[in-house]
Structures are given as C-alpha cells and as structure tokens.
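Appendix B. One record, verbatim.
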Amino acid sequence: MNSQTAYAEGKGSIDVQLTPDEALALTGVEFNGNHKIKTEAQRKIRNAFEKKFDFDTPSR
C-alpha cells in the first residue's frame, strides 16, 4: 500500500465491537461455508482504523 498515516499522540487505540464468531475468525478459526464472518470482522476493524487516523495518499 502506498499511503502515509499521521499518528497523533493519545490516539493509540481503537474500539471495535465484534461478535464472538468474528473474534474467533480473526484468531484463525475457520467457519466452513461462511467466509463472510472473517471478512466482516476485517471490514469493521479497517473502518474503525480509518475513522481514528488520518490518511494521506501520495500523488503519483
């Protein structure tokens, strides 16, 4: 990825609410027939991270 992140002091953590199945999926547990569980958990984390930190995409 080509992006720069501006980390501000005091913004070192994010809060994300995951279902128990989503949390397990992120630890490596596989849910046969439902790969969307892990995908949804990753999406929630990515969205929370993007809300917390500022991203500057460098111009090409």
